[in-house]
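dude i think i finally got it to work??
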Amino acid sequence: MAKIVIVLGDSGSGKTASLRNLPEGSAVVMSATGKELSFVNKNKLPLAKVGYSEILNTIPKVTQPVVVIDDANYLMTFENMSRSKEEGWGKFTDMAIHFYEMFDAISKKEGEQIFYIMSHAEISELTGQRQIKTIGKMLSEKIVLEGLSNIVLESFYDELDGYVFITTRTDSRSAAKAPMGMFDKKQVPNDLYEVDKTIRQFYGFKPIKETK
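look at this
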């Protein structure tokens, strides 16, 4: 089955930059904002600006072993802005359903693909933990998106080690988690290619290879 990995972090914390070493042909990047990558794209990672319809159409068809949905929280933000003049609570239900459908489609896909959902974080009013930044309370309180994945990484800048990923909970606000035995350190370098290797090895997936 395809796996979902949630990557949480503030703007500038290194989420997108972590893609820099993914081999050519191994990944596709779907961006809610369409902003250019924060590094020289020497490996020619395909990048496309997408909305919900493009994502839902792509998930069943995409064949690359790594699929990145970058700036995912902006999917809700942009929909909210486009519907800002609508009255009533129905639009918030629609926004929650649209975002959830993305997770649901991935969870139903067979194969050895890993989907990385990259998002800004916020602090939950209910739990006090970091979570995907959403609009409305249906996703954060009723569904809890982080519960739909066994792996949540937090992108962070450490004054000693630079840009890193946190792999396990480090404080009361942390949402980081991974299956026991997957990572041998609480903090690993900010390199999605190396992280992906570790996850694939844990699940018995074939390693990704460069294809031109």
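The beta strands are 3-8, 27-31, 47-49, 66-70, 114-119, 121-123, 130-132, 151-158, 162-166, 187-189.
im so relieved honestly
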